[in-house]
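Next up, sample data:
>
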Amino acid sequence: MVILGRIAAPYGVQGWMHVQVFGDDPLSWSKLPKWWISSNALADGPDWEAFQLGDLRQHNGIVVRFVGIENRDAALCLRGNYVAAPPSLLPTTQPGEFYWHELIGLVVVNTQGEAIGKVAQLIESTAHHVIEVQKPNGQYTLLPFVNQVILDVDLIQQQLRVDWESDW
């Protein structure tokens, strides 16, 4: 499953809820036949419960309503749960685009050809996204996900080329 976001606070009294979005195009999620929800982002397929989307609209981010969730109390029960979808149902990316989950595990190589480590996770922050890289010695380093640092993402070669020194 690919984590798309997390259910935040209820919105109104008719079962609507805010979704904290972990992607760039949440309006395209309205085309998904179902949304899968779990309290555990690392859960296996059977641990995700499928919900049919009733409605989705933009309002300070996005708000959604699921079929069968008709009031604020029911929406409140879903607060904090993760929203996901199987990778096969996600829209196809264009050249030069990728999903965050595709970056996990890529080898991070600097401009000198040195392998710095592997992408462990991506972190969304207010200034810019950050990648956490696990070094061969087990330690972690954080790199800003900005054009000055991230030079190339090569999903075929499973590499992320960066302008970053190995001892930073």
